[in-house]
Known about the structure:
The protein has helices spanning 29-39, 50-57, 75-88, 134-149, 154-162, 173-181, 234-245, 277-295, 304-307, 315-321, 347-367, and strands spanning 4-7, 21-23, 93-100, 106-112, 120-126, 163-168, 250-258, 262-265, 300-303, 326-332. By secondary structure, the protein is of the alpha/beta class. It folds into two domains: 3-45, no CATH class; 75-367, 3-Layer(aba) Sandwich (Aminopeptidase). Helix 5 crosses helix 11 (347-367). Its EC number is 3.4.17.2.
Amino acid sequence: MQIDFWNPETITQVKPEMRVDFRVEADKSSDVESLLEQSGVEYEILIDNLKTVLDAQFDSNVRATGHDYEKYNNWETIAAWTADIAAQNANLVSRTEIGTTFQGRPIYLLKVGKSGSNKKAIFMDCGFHAREWISPAFCQWFVKEAVSTYGSDTLMTRLLNNLDFYILPVLNIDGYVYTWTNYRMWRKTRSTNSGSSCIGTDPNRNFNAGWCSAGASKRPCDDTYCGSAPESEKETKALADFIRKNLSTIKAYLTIHSYSQMLLFPYSYTYSVPENYAELNTISTTAVQELASLYGTKYTFGSGASTIYLAAGGSDDWAYDQGIKYSFTFELRDTGRYGFALPESQIKPTCEETLKAVKYIANYVLDHLY
């Protein structure tokens, strides 16, 4: 029986004693419950009717026309926002296009920082996986905080004076659009696959870091399909090309996902640990303390493979292997109560606490440039 894995991402990543979150179609739910009971597996129904919870994701049924930082914005709204925020804050923000998606949409990148000569940079992307809506919400929030607190918040001012932030608000734009128009639970890109009627590649299995060796699928119909080759997707290639072109300036890479409240660093494609493991572990320890200081949200942290599971072809491992030694993946709220259907009322607290961790990491990087 096909089920939709929410956490972990695929059957091969399920380990003994692990809690597993998955979604089943309504007409299969009683069969699944019988199977679990026959096998003596403890289970709990977290969301009885996903449609109800998804409808409630939009806390107020009054949809603001236009952009709102405390609401989920569709792509059209986000795209217009990227132009507006740059036009209104020309001293701090500029917008470029680093490529186009499979379906031809422009991939926008915002450069945030006070202009200066030979500044180092931090790259942060959101929206790899289409259904993780809280992720693009954070990239938008970060830019808002940058432009609105520059000059008043000491730390933010220091960061923007001394570093540039490259912010990619949504990488997998086609997939994100599809979650708004067709199917809320879509994850992958929307590219076609030769020899298969199944659509899409998992962009976070599509990088040249132990590509397709573990925790990734070679089957185009699977949610963790690694693609026909590394960087087969126009979106991942655009990101990788940009980072390669700017390797001398980019000193940290942050990629924002959901959910499970984790801060992960390399490696995910192998159990071996990176050369600066102790340093990454120390940074993470303080970063999650910073994050928890606001609302008490508890994060776990560690290297990807040992903390959760082997997963090859991820952008964080790839960036690290390019020489970017501060490379982190955030898995934002929650731990499964709502999962991908996180209500809009949690956007503000989630973004506020995550901002504290990101500012801490950025400040550390600024103090340890290489």
